[in-house]
Structures are given as structure tokens and as C-alpha cells.
Amino acid sequence: MGLALDLIAALADGRLRVVDLTNTLSPDFPVIVLPEEFGQCAPFRMEQVSRYDADGPAWYWNQITMNEHTGTHFDAPVHWVTGRDLPDNTVDAVPPEHFMAPVVVIDIVAEAAADADFVLTRAFLEDWEARNGPIPPRHWIALRTDWHKRVGTAAYLNLREDGAHSPGPDAGAMEFLVHDRDCFGLAVETVGTDAGQGSTFDPPLPAHAILHGNGRYGLQCLRNLDQLPVRGAVIVAAPLKIQGGSGSPLRVFAIHES
């Protein structure tokens, strides 16, 4: 039949399972909040054009507006100053074969539950590898925190007077993942790939700076990482082909053996 048709057959007969990793995009879904002096990410907005009525008797559709980094979304290298001069750095220039890649899921649920500001370090990753085996090259690194279970509550953004509080990596962890493990990108359930307090790190916001400066990608606001195996799943994440775009909301799903 050929490999492509074999894939469809395996999906049809249940040998392969599809897991939706995407949160529903709605006006209620929260977006990242930056310090007041900076421009802000606009939330998703939807306005009905017609719904089988005088404005369109046989059709239903809506006008939508949103920021490129709204809801479950993709970060291209151009999103960050460190990646602004790289080739193929916008969503319309990313090679389409990069929209599919295997994933390693790293469980930090207990750590994030005990400390919303849990920092992922190189030492933690090395200890994880000692127990789970080495992280293969060209894999998404997915941080499972079960943060998606907070969606619909104030605890999702977890804002306090000094900003957001959520887990994320430090520079040592990102240097290890990018340079020593040649990761494809970082995928998280939180609203950003950096920790909520990542702007206070040295250097600031290391996930964005190191990932995008090295031509890697980010996925944010995922869900259902608890349904994936540690290894063996493939993530499919194809952003909208926005001219010169820095990122895009998208439908993300994973495929793995049942």
C-alpha cells in the first residue's frame, strides 16, 4: 500500500491513537500578561457574520481576530530578538517537514504542584536521564505539569503583584537541551515556554532566548500530555502560513501506538 496509506490504515483500525493536545480557542481563554509599559497580547475575539438568517440565509460564519500568540500556539524563531536574523525564521518559511517530530515527555507534575515556581535545571534533566535513558536528538521536549487542569481558573495565569508564577527552565537546562541534546523545541502546558518569573532569571527569559536564537520552536498552552508515553509519540503542529508571522494559533495533536 505504501507508507502513507499504511499510516491511514493504522489510524483506522486503532493501531495508532490520536491525542488532541489543543485547548479550545474562545474569548475566555487567557493570554499572557506583560508589564504595563509593553504592548499586550490581544485575546481571541469572534463576531458572527451570519447564521442562516437575513445576513446569510444558507450559511454560518464568523469574523475572528487574535494575536499570533493566543491560545495553543506555535513560536517561530523570529518571535525573539535572538532569532530575528536566522533563515526560514517565520511561520510561512518554516519547512513543512518540521511540523512533525517525535516527542519526549518529562513529568514534573509533583514538582510543579509543590512549587508553582519550580525551575527545571540541567541537574534535574541529567537525573531524569539516569532513570529514563538519554534524550534522543531532534525531539520535542514536552514538560508535563498538568497545568492544563487549571484552565478556566485564575490559577492558570497565576498572577500576583510581581507577575505570573509558573514552572519553567533555567538557562542551564535550555543550553543542555539545545546544544547537548539537539532538541527540536520545547512544548509546555503553561502560557509561555519560560517560567512565570523568567524575566528575573540570568539571562532573562532563557527558553525564548536560547530556543529561538538557535532556530528551535516553542509550543504553548498544550493539554493532555498526561495521555502520552514518555517516548514513542509524534507531535503534529502546523501553524497558519502567515506572511512574515512570528507565531500562530494551531491545532496540535500527537500520534502513538495504542
Distance between the termini: 21 Å
Biggest sheet statistics: 9 strands, mixed
As residue ranges, the low-confidence spans are: none
Report the principal-axis shape.
Answer: globular
List SSEs in N-to-C order.
HEEEEEHEHEEEEHEHEEEE
Q: Give the radius of gyration.
A: 19 Å
**What's the count of strands?**
15
Strand content: 25-35%
Query: How would you classify the helix and strand content by structural class?
Result: alpha/beta
- The order of strands across the largest sheet is 1-15-13-5-7-11-12-4-14
What is the typical, i.e. mean, pLDDT?
97
Number of helices: 5
Helix content: 10-25%
Salient structural properties:
single chain; 258 residues; alpha/beta; 9-stranded mixed sheet; two-stranded antiparallel sheet; 27% strand
